[in-house]
Amino acid sequence: MSRDTTYRPEASRASRPLLWIATLLAIVTMAPVAWLVGLSIKDNRELMLGTESVFRVPYTLINYINILYSSQAFGWFFNSMVVAIGQTLGVLVLSSLAGYAFARLEFPFRRTIFVIVLFGLAVPEQAVIIARHQMFNWFGLHNTHIGLILPGLSSAFGVFLMTQFFKAIPRDIDEAALLDNASQLRIFWKIMLPLTLPAQATLGIFTFLHAWNDYWWPLISATRKEMFTITIGIASSQQNFAQSEGLGFLSAQAVFASLPVLIVYMIFQRHIVTAVSGGAVK
Amino acid sequence: MAESYRRSHWGHAVFVLPYLTIFALLLAFPLFWSVWLSLHKVDLFGPGRFVGLGNYARVLADPVFLQAFRNTVVFVALSVPTLVALGLFLALALNRTTRAASFLRGLFFSSSVLSVAIVTLIWRFVFIPGEGLMPLIFEQLGLQPINFLSTAGWSLFSVGVATVWWCIGLPMMLFLAALQQIPGDLYEAAALDNASPWRVLTRITLPSIARTVMLVTVIQIVMQFQLFGQAHLMTNGGPSGTSRPLVMYIYEVGFVRWDVGKGAAASELLFLIILCAAMVQYVVSTRKPEVAE
């Protein structure tokens, strides 16, 4: 169904006032963000005298320049990058392999195993986090990148998504390849995988965003300051912001930390919107 | 010959082996281990003796747990209807092809990609007494500023405001997708009958998306029951525990006071609650849609 034909302008004429209310809501929604950006371009000393100075000149980029000199924020940023990219690649590889087999190959107990994996979808992080924390302790994985990456790889969501996608590919494509005596791995790599690129993109974007924004696991696993992800770093610096770097610096740090996800969002907005709305309601 | 790959073959399982290993080690085993822990007296020095359901009894008798449970229920009862109603309103308002509508959709969804640490920072800077945006506005209006983050009642409310702001994108998108599925001829028929916009809304639009309303509600219940970061960072559960949610209780018992057995018991109780909601979600999502495709 094409998107454009299903929008109904004649039905929406009556809803014009709704659009105005929505616009008003958007302004209210954006006000806190504007406030944060405003704080980030003010000098800390001026803010100490009163934050209403946000509405007056002069503005400055000094807080952003200070981030460049604060090696800490960059270290956190680097950790987040390693964790988010590592987790994304891991999830893509594991989910593609498993999804392919679940959707298109036969092996003993396939159905049973798939149902067990699906049950994993219903297990929230909270139900396993205490045991995980102990296990990672046994193996000395806390305060390491690999320790931050691993838990995210166990999510059953990717496997479920990739299985659905592999199922949608017509059967005759790989049957033709099999007639040519191509190996199973070759079929997967050369024929199947390229066909699932849109799904890979969707899964990749969501995994990246999720890993970048994850809060609880890094909070308890990365306890050494130099192993913080940027999310945990921002969280830890806001807990005692009154006596620390000042509102302006913290705001600039928050803007800096949000840039990667906002850039990912802006580039892939159309993709994300389709994935969110198409995947859940069908 | 071409059928050979459909024949059951142990070799094919190699493809699922990497994920299954991770699944077994990081999900299945920890789940059983958590249950095991919840049945034992455990502290920093390692697993102790079997106490049966003792930890569960300790959790259920803990006034802090009961308070956290009540806070969570209140939070869910207030935030979920708000998210559903607001999401539905935005979807109805922005279900059009204009560039402005598309821009606003993108804008309302954009907050969901931010991390909880950023969201709470933004809202703390709005609410903090003296320096925040709210106190400034209150002052301009000549009102007595309220200390939103450290007044009982207001603190959970502030957490709720930040949460709705953060989470509104998903309900809106799900409702938009559902609105797109309504067959256009229903509206054409209504236009021929000169039906009023209100009638169209209540007789056609809402009944057609009733299933999605249910689905979004259950998804949000599951999500909001797991409230943690917002409360942890904005109010730290205060004042005197009035904004402490269940997950924060688990965090404090398990990772601050290191009462591992009790924390595990509390986390399994939460799992049970979420499992019930997830089951409802499954039933709702597999039920036949009422709109014929």
What's this, in brief?
Chain A is mainly α and 282 residues long. Chain A contains 16 helices and no strands.
How are the SSEs placed, and which strands pair?
The complex is a heterodimer of chains A (282) and B (293).
Chain A: H1 3-6, H2 9-12, H3 16-40, H4 44-49, H5 62-69, H6 71-104, H7 110-119, H8 125-138, H9 145-153, H10 157-168, H11 171-179, H12 184-195, H13 197-213, H14 216-221, H15 230-239, H16 247-280
Chain B: H1 17-38, E1 40-43, E2 46-50, H2 54-60, H3 63-94, H4 99-110, H5 116-127, H6 133-140, H7 154-167, H8 169-181, H9 184-192, H10 197-208, H11 210-225, H12 229-234, H13 246-256, H14 260-286
Report on the structure:
The complex is a heterodimer of chains A (282) and B (293). Chain A is built from 16 helices and no strands. Chain A has 282 residues and is mainly alpha-helical. Chain A has a domain at 71-229 and 257-280: MetI-like (MetI-like fold), CATH 1.10.3720. Chain A is globular and about 75 Å long. The relative contact order of chain A is 0.13. Mean pLDDT of chain A is 85; it is low at 1-7. Chain B is mainly alpha-helical and 293 residues long. Chain B has 2 domains: 1-38, no CATH class; 54-286, MetI-like (MetI-like fold, Orthogonal Bundle), CATH 1.10.3720.10. In chain B, strands 1-2 form a two-stranded antiparallel sheet. In chain B, strand 1 (40-43) and strand 2 form a beta hairpin. Classes of the chains: A mainly alpha (282), B mainly alpha (293). At the A-B interface, helix 1, helix 2, helix 3, helix 6 and helix 7 of A face helix 1, helix 3, helix 4, helix 5 and helix 8 of B. Chain A: The complex is composed of two ATP-binding proteins (UgpC), two transmembrane proteins (UgpA and UgpE) and a solute-binding protein (UgpB). Chain A: It holds the Pfam family BPD_transp_1. Chain A: It is a multi-pass membrane protein.
